[in-house]
Amino acid sequence: MLDLHDISLTFNENTPDEKKALQQVNLTMGKGEFVTVIGSNGAGKSTLMNVISGTLIPDVGFVNIGNKKVTGLPEYKRSKFIGRVFQDPMAGTAPTMTIEENLAMAYARDKKRTLRIGVTKKRKELFRDYLKTLNLGLEDRLTAKVGLLSGGERQALSLLMATFTEPNILMLDEHTAALDPSRAELIKNLTKDVVDKFNLTTLMVTHNMQQALDLGNRLIMMDKGQIILDVKGEEKQKLTIEKLLHEFKRIRGEQFESDRAILG
C-alpha cells in the first residue's frame, strides 16, 4: 500500500542553514499494517509525512501509494488515496460549516464532483450511523457548527472524516498531542477501533513512546532524517520504553534527549 524508495530531501541546500531532512529513507507497508513512528524533534517524522502527502517533493527517490507512482502528484490529487489527521484539532475540519456538511465533503473526497446536493436524507442516515460509533452523541447534532465542538470532539470527527472512504493509507500526525490526557486517551482508543474495523494501512507519528508501544503492529524510530530502528510483530510486543532508549544509545552511541517522548 505504501512504498518509499531512497527518499532524500535537503532544506536550504548549499547555505549555512543547510539541513538534511531525510536521508535515503526506504519504507514499505503492506495492507492493514499499522506503523508507529517515534523520534526526537528534528528527526524527520513530519517531513516524512509531508513527502507522502505531497506537501513536499523529495530531491531523490519515489513514492508509490497502492501501486500507483505519486512522486510528482500535487497534494490535492493524492487526497483520494490518503486520509490525514493533524495535531491541531482545528486543521482537519471547516469550523463555519455544520457536522453534516463536513462529513459530506469527506464523503465526496474520492468521488467525481457534481452539482447535486451534498447532504441528502440517505446520507444523513449514513452519517448518523458512523457518528454513533464515536459514542459522543454527535449523531444528534448534525446541524451544529463544527467550531462549537470541543477539541476532543473535533479530533474524533476529523478521524472519522479521514477514514470515511477507507483510504489507501491513513496518516496520523501527532493527532493526540494537543488534547488533555482524558481526551487523548479517548482518541487513542477510537483510533485503534477504527483502524481495526476497516483494516486500514496506518502511519502514526508520535512523540509519546508509550503510545507508540500501545498502538500498531510495527514501530520505526527516526533520527537525523534516517530510519534507525524497525521492529514488528512479537518483537514489538516485547518492547518497553527502557528497551527503546537502550536501542537508541546502542545505535547512536548517545542518550535519547526528548523528555516529552519519555514522559508522554
From TrEMBL:
What top-level branch of life does the organism fall under? Bacteria
Topology relative to the lipid bilayer, per the entry, is: Peripheral membrane protein
Q: Which Pfam families match?
A: ABC_tran
Task: Classify the main location.
Answer: membrane
UniProtKB keywords: ATP-binding, Cell membrane, Membrane, Nucleotide-binding, Transport
| Gene3D superfamilies referenced in this protein's UniProt entry, alphabetically | P-loop containing nucleotide triphosphate hydrolases
Which InterPro entries does this entry report, sorted A to Z? Answer: AAA+_ATPase, ABC_transporter-like_ATP-bd, ABC_transporter-like_CS, ABC_transporter_ATP-bind, P-loop_NTPase
Q: Which PROSITE patterns match?
A: ABC_TRANSPORTER_1, ABC_TRANSPORTER_2
MF terms from GO for this chain are: ATP binding
Where in or outside the cell it occurs: the entry states: Cell membrane
Q: Where is the ABC transporter domain?
A: 2-249
**Does ATP-binding appear among the keywords?**
yes
Q: What is this protein called?
A: ABC transport system ATP-binding protein
Q: List the source organism.
A: Virgibacillus litoralis
